[in-house]
């Protein structure tokens, strides 16, 4: 043997690898064939020589992982099939001594082929050694010798080969290990044929052996393989770092394979009955679990931490999660989580956690019934507790690190900024995932959520709010945006967050509230965004809210008043108002629910909230005023009162309309109630609401912002005033509609006060306001049967006197003759002759007064116009009287004198062609003649309507009408022509 | 005369006792050891019908150190050879002057022959042993030599008993794994089967070195012993304390150094006898690389020294970096021969 060995070594020393992959493949093929031939001829030593040459090809350092793998595969087959088989059969027949061969192959000069051959021979040798210690020594020896291979890729493949070969001896890995452990000279002997006592002894030994194999062999191999894998990135120039990274990813399965094999040592899931029926196997399987748990896992996790390489850590944790059965992971979750905490800060922990949670989820979906372990773990909130503790520890640790790094970096400020950011990148998703977890496993346990939010609240300072991405994330997190999105998009989370969930969350989680309300108070825009999203979730979802108690409602309240505190900047005011109005709408929704009892409650709460809202607005406007003054003092006009006020003015009408709505609701409810007691109650409610409304309007009017704004810019403030005024009038109309006439009257009175006290700047506005007032009054009069009362009369007279105070005569005149309507009676007039008589008197008075004013106007055209209008009015009243069957108010004499007056003024206008455009007079004349004609018919007591459409009447006047239209058209055409000329 | 000049008038045959059963080494030479008697039979065959007169037949055993000049072209062709020292020369007469008429055999014996040196064939020096039979004649003497080979087994020597003591344990542990199987011989030796013997024995001096290049490489290596038998295994390890070097591979070589000639005209010839890769690729800091080199498979020369020449063995640890630079550290080891 020595002589032969010398020749082998000397020749292998001279060997070198081929220059290209193609050549290498040819070489490998050649020598594989030669090796096989020599094996057939029983020339083992020569065969080994060719195996060495073949393996020398694997020494090439210039191969990419892919090429290397190709060569590896090519070598793998001849080595494991023919060579290994030969060794085994020859050894079985006692023709060769594997121990000698084992020593012999160590003469191989190059380490890589030497190690491959050692593995092949050594592992084959294991099969023929009975003594456990010897076996272990062989394995240990292999492990130690493999240290000589320090080249990353070559080493990876070598160790991969070791594992592959080690496990390739039998079909199932478990059998394999036990086969390796307990050698049976005759392979036909069933493993459990020996006596029972020795079996148990065997088991003890087996356990010891398995433990040894796992800890001493597999884990050592794994640690080394991982080291080699990490080392790849340090090869070559740093410019190729990316390339190295890709290579590492390509090679990671080699690392993972090891873990896969270890995981296969675990017993198959209990679903396969035949294996579990044999008690021997079952005991051994439980012991294998124990060993994996006690010996493998701590080592494994410890090594993950120690290797301190992010890619490696990520992959190894991931593969552990993916490969090991769920029960195992669950049972050893604490260790795993503890490891995750200690991972390098560059590892994206959130991905790991989501994978983990995802794994739990998918497995539970698949085998929901079979799996008792999961059920046990999930019970009692255990799973959540674990993750929760993990979260807390993780944060603690990270904050500590941050502090330490901050302390140490005090001198050089380079890294202060980086650390916390690293932490945060993973922190938010972490929260997210754990929330998802608890939602999935414990959908009804809001205490969990509460805890999470508590933690989040406490650690909010860790989150950088400068980062827009962070803000978005927080928002999505707190509004469960991800979850809802997932539910819509894919079946990702498998459950739907509905508004009921949010409702429950709000009502059950204190910390959620305090998080949003208190902790986020420095980030208002965020806070408001969240609130808006929350509330809109209530509104947008059509799912019925299932409010269970008043308590729930009250809790929801607590989200609201706090917002009143934050109204510094205008944009927030709008936002917070949005929240309010949304909330309000939310109440509307809840109130329409079918639950009768609740309906009653919700109305109250609606009222409450509305009043809150109102109070808030008032307070806020006060506050903004103060703030703004300060700001103005300081520097700019940006937040000027005008801007702010506009916001307030934008808001309050909707509050008023909200009041209407709620009152209307009460009204409807009231009308539906049969019980008088309830009716009375609703009535009281309505009246109270109106009182609030009225008070609100008053408060707005006396609001400092209002008064200050009215002083600062008169035009906009009068617009606002007019707005209020209109709203008051509408409120009054509204009150009429629901039969609250006294209230309607009150509001009109209020409107008068505004009109008189404050709307006194602009005449045209005053005029418009008056017209509105008149209309409202008229409506009130029409609706209210009891129109003769004192209040009404007062209002009318007040109205008229107000009209006469208008600045422009034209306006005075018009408004006054319109006031005449106020006394006109639509309803049963005949019954009340007396009051009717009084009314006629007032109508007459109004008309006469307006005629006087019209007559006194200097501008003939306007005067004439007004007169014609008045005439028209008179005709209306007369026609009405005729149709009602009462005496006409304006007798013939009055009418004719009025007509005469008009005729005269038209004539004078026609004559005074210098001052008045005849074209302007024409339509006047036309209208007048029309009126005149009507009057004529009236006198003949002929029905107004029938005569109005009489053909001769038409032909006569319509022609003239058409003519004037034609003229106007021609004039326009001419004008356009002229313009064209100019342009050309 | 002419006849006898052209063709010797008698054939001399030297047969050593049990020659066929004796172990043959180095070009099929029978192997002897120190103190072993050399016995045999010399047969003088006279040609048919011839008579040979002689002045006596003498047998001698000779051990000599020769200086050899070999061609440097690698063919090892011997250019010249001259004896330097004959350290052994014993002879006596087999028969007195007389006449040989027919073939005759004489047995000879050199009892308990002391052999100072091992047989050796080196680059410049050889140590040869042979038995020489000379038939003295008035005219040219007829002589015949019979070479034999000599091994010196150090475990005979009382001076290194401790070494031999550790050796026998070492022997039953050629690999770390063979424990169970080789338990038998260990018990026979009556020695402790405890493997820790090696460590416990204070005489088994380790070689432990701490070397490095500043800020570049710092390694610590140790060989289990400084003295090895030729069938021994070199076991050791290398501990990398610092590696900035991109190492391509590391190998262990055994260097045999032959120093010949008298001072100051000594010539040194180095021969790399073993070249053995022990590491491939670049290790990281803290890595420990095992060394295990079986010597038994190689044809090695044990250490020798005498006035005229000496043979020393060195273990050389060579680190080759990726640019092909070689860094090495040599440390002397003593190789000695033991019985199998």
TrEMBL record, chain A:
Membrane protein topology class: Peripheral membrane protein
GO BP terms in the entry: intracellular protein transport; retrograde transport, endosome to Golgi
InterPro entries per record: Vps35, Vps35_C
Keywords: Membrane, Protein transport, Transport
The keyword Amino-acid biosynthesis is annotated on this UniProt entry: no
Localization per record: Membrane
GO cellular component, one term: retromer, cargo-selective complex
Pfam annotation, one family: Vps35
Record's keyword annotation contains Cytoplasm: no
Subcellular location, principal: membrane
PANTHER family xref list: VACUOLAR PROTEIN SORTING-ASSOCIATED PROTEIN 35, VACUOLAR SORTING PROTEIN 35
Record family assignment: Belongs to the VPS35 family.
Function: Plays a role in vesicular protein sorting.
Name of the protein this chain belongs to: Vacuolar protein sorting-associated protein 35
Organism lineage string: Eukaryota, Fungi, Dikarya, Ascomycota, Saccharomycotina
Gene: NDAI0B00130
TrEMBL record, chain B:
Top-level taxon of the source organism: Eukaryota
Keywords, alphabetical: Protein transport, Transport
Region (Disordered): 171-198
Gene3D superfamilies for this protein: 2.60.40.640
GO biological process terms held by the UniProt record: intracellular protein transport; protein retention in Golgi apparatus; retrograde transport, endosome to Golgi
Lineage of the organism: Eukaryota, Fungi, Dikarya, Ascomycota, Saccharomycotina
Record-level GO cellular component terms: CROP complex; cytosol; endosome; retromer, cargo-selective complex
Comp. bias regions, Polar residues: 171-181
Molecular function per GO: protein transporter activity
The protein, known as: Vacuolar protein sorting-associated protein 26
Entry similarity comment: Belongs to the VPS26 family.
InterPro entries: Arrestin-like_C, Ig_E-set, Vps26-related
Naturally occurring in which organism (per UniProt): Naumovozyma dairenensis (strain ATCC 10597 / BCRC 20456 / CBS 421 / NBRC 0211 / NRRL Y-12639)
């Amino acid at each position: 043997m020595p002589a032969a060995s010398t020749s082998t070594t000397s020749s292998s020393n001279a060997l070198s690898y081929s220059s290209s992959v193609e050549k290498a493949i040819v070489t490998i093929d050649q020598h594989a064939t030669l090796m096989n031939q020599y094996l057939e001829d029983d020339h083992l030593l020569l065969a080994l020589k060719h195996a060495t040459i073949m393996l020398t090809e694997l020494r090439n350092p210039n191969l990419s992982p892919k090429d290397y793998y190709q060569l590896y595969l090519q070598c793998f087959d001849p080595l494991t099939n023919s060579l290994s088989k030969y060794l085994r059969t020859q050894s079985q027949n006692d023709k060769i001594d594997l121990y000698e061969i084992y020593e012999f192959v160590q003469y191989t000069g190059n380490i890589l082929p030497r190690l491959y051959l050692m593995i092949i021979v050594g592992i084959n040798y294991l099969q023929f050694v009975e003594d456990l210690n010897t076996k272990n020594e062989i394995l240990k020896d292999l492990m130690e010798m493999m240290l000589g291979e320090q080249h990353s890729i070559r080493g990876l493949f070598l160790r991969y080969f070791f594992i592959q070969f080690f496990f390739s001896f039998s079909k199932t890995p478990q059998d394999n290990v036990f086969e390796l452990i307990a050698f049976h000279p005759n392979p036909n002997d069933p493993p459990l044929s020996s006596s029972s006592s020795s079996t148990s002894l065997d088991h003890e030994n087996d356990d010891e052996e398995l433990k040894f194999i796992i800890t001493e062999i597999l884990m050592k191999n794994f640690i080394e393989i991982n080291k080699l894998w990490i080392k790849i990135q340090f090869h070559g120039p740093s410019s190729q770092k990316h390339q190295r990274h890709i290579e590492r990813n390509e090679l990671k399965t080699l690392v993972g394979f090891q873990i896969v094999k270890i995981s296969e040592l675990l017993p198959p899931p209990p679903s396969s009955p035949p294996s579990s029926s044999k008690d021997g196997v079952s005991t051994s399987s439980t012991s294998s679990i124990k060993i994996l748990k006690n010996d493998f896992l701590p080592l494994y996790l410890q090594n993950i931490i120690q290797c301190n390489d992010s890619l490696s850590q990520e992959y190894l944790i991931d593969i552990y999660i993916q490969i090991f059965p769920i029960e195992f992971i669950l049972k050893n979750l604490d260790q795993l989580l503890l490891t995750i905490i200690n991972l390098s800060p560059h590892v994206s922990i959130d991905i790991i956690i989501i994978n983990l949670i995802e794994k739990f989820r998918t497995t539970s979906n698949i085998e929901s019934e079979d799996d008792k372990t999961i059920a046990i773990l999930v019970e009692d909130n255990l799973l959540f507790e674990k993750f929760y503790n993990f979260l807390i520890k993780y944060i603690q640790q990270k904050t500590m690190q941050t502090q330490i790094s901050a302390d140490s970096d005090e001198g050089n400020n380079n890294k202060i900024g980086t650390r916390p950011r690293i932490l945060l990148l993973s922190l938010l998703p972490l929260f997210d995932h754990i929330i998802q977890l608890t939602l999935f496993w414990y959908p009804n346990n809001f205490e969990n959520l509460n805890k999470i939010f508590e933690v989040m609240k406490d650690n909010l300072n860790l989150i950088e709010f400068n980062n827009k991405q962070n803000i978005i994330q927080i928002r999505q997190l707190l509004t469960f945006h991800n979850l809802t999105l997932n539910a819509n998009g894919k079946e990702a989370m498998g459950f739907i967050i509905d508004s009921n969930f949010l409702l429950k969350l709000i009502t059950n989680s204190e910390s959620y509230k305090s998080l949003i309300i208190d902790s986020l108070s420095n980030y208002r825009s965020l806070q408001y965004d969240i609130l808006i999203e929350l509330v809109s979730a209530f509104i947008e979802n059509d799912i019925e809210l299932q409010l269970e108690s008043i308590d729930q409602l009250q809790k929801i309240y607590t989200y609201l008043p706090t917002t009143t505190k934050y109204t510094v900047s205008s944009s927030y005011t709008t936002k917070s108002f949005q929240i309010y109005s949304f909330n309000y709408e939310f109440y509307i929704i809840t109130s329409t629910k079918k639950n009768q009892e609740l309906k009653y409650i919700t109305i109250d709460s609606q009222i409450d909230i509305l009043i809150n809202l109102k109070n808030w607005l008032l307070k806020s406007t006060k506050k903004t005023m103060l703030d703004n003054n300060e700001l103005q003092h300081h520097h700019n006009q940006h937040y000027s009162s005008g801007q702010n006020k506009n916001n307030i003015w934008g808001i309050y009408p909707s509050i008023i309309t909200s009041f209407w709505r709620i009152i209307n609701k009460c009204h409807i409810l009231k009308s539906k109630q049969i019980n008088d007691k309830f009716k009375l109650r609703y009535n009281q409610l309505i009246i109270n609401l109106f009182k609030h409304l009225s008070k609100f309007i008053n408060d707005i009017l006396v609001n400092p912002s209002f008064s200050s704004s009215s002083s600062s810019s008169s035009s906009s403030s009068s617009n606002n005033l007019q707005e209020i005024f209109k709203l008051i009038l509408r409120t009054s109309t509204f009150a009429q509609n629901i039969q609250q006439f006294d209230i309607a009257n009150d509001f009109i009175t209020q409107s008068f006060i505004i009109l008189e006290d404050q709307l006194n700047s602009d005449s045209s506005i005053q005029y418009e306001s008056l017209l509105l007032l008149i209309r409202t009054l008229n409506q009130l009069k029409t609706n209210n049967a009891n129109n003769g009362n004192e209040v009404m009369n007062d209002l009318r007279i007040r109205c008229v006197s107000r009209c006469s105070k208008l600045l422009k005569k034209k306006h005075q005149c018009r408004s006054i003759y319109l006031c005449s309507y106020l006394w006109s009676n639509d309803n049963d007039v005949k019954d009340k002759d007396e009051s009717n008589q009084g009314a006629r008197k007032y109508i007459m008075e109004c008309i006469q007064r307006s005629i006087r004013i019209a007559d006194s106007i200097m501008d003939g055209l306007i005067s004439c116009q007004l007169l014609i209008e008045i005439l028209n009015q008179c005709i209306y009243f007369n026609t009405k009287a005729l149709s009602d069957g009462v005496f006409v108010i304006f007798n013939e004499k009055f009418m004719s004198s009025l007509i005469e007056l008009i005729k005269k003024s038209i004539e004078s206008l026609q004559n005074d062609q210098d001052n008045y455009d005849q074209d302007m007079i024409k339509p006047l004349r036309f209208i007048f003649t029309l009126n005149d004609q009507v009057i004529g018919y009236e006198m003949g007591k002929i029905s107004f309507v029938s005569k109005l459409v009489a053909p001769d009447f038409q032909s006569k006047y319509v022609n003239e009408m058409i003519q004037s239209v034609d003229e106007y058209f021609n004039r326009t055409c001419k004008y356009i022509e002229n313009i064209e000329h100019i342009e050309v | 005369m002419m006849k006898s000049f052209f063709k010797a008038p008698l054939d001399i045959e030297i047969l050593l006792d049990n020659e066929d059963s004796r172990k043959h080494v180095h070009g099929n030479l029978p192997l002897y050891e120190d103190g072993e008697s050399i016995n045999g039979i010399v047969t003088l065959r006279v040609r048919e019908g011839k008579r040979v007169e002689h002045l006596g037949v003498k047998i001698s055993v000779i051990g000599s150190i020769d200086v050899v000049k070999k061609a440097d072209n690698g063919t090892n062709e011997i250019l010249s050879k001259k004896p330097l020292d004959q350290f052994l020369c014993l002879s006596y007469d087999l028969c007195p002057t007389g006449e040989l008429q027919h073939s005759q055999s004489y047995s000879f014996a050199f009892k308990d022959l002391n052999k100072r040196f091992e047989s050796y064939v080196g680059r410049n020096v050889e140590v040869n042993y042979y038995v020489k039979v000379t038939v003295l004649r008035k005219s040219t003497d007829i002589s015949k030599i019979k070479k034999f080979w000599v091994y010196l087994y150090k475990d005979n020597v009382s001076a290194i008993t401790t070494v031999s003591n550790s050796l026998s344990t070492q022997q039953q542990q050629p690999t770390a794994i063979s424990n169970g199987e080789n338990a038998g011989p260990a018990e026979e030796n009556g020695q402790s089967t405890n493997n820790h013997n090696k460590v416990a024995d204070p005489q088994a001096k380790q070689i432990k070195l701490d070397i490095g290049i500043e800020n570049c490489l710092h390694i610590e290596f140790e060989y289990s012993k400084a003295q090895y038998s030729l069938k021994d295994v070199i076991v050791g390890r290398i501990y990398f304390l610092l590696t900035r070097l991109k190492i391509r591979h590391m190998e262990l070589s055994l260097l045999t150094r032959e120093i010949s000639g008298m001072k100051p005209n000594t010539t040194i010839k180095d021969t790399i006898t073993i070249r053995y890769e022990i590491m491939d690729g670049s290790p990281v800091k803290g890595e420990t690389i095992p060394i295990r080199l079986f010597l038994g498979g190689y044809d090695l020369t044990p250490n020798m020294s005498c006035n005229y020449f000496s043979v020393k063995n060195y273990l050389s640890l060579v680190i080759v970096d990726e640019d092909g630079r070689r860094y090495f550290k040599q440390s002397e080891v003593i190789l000695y021969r033991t019985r199998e």
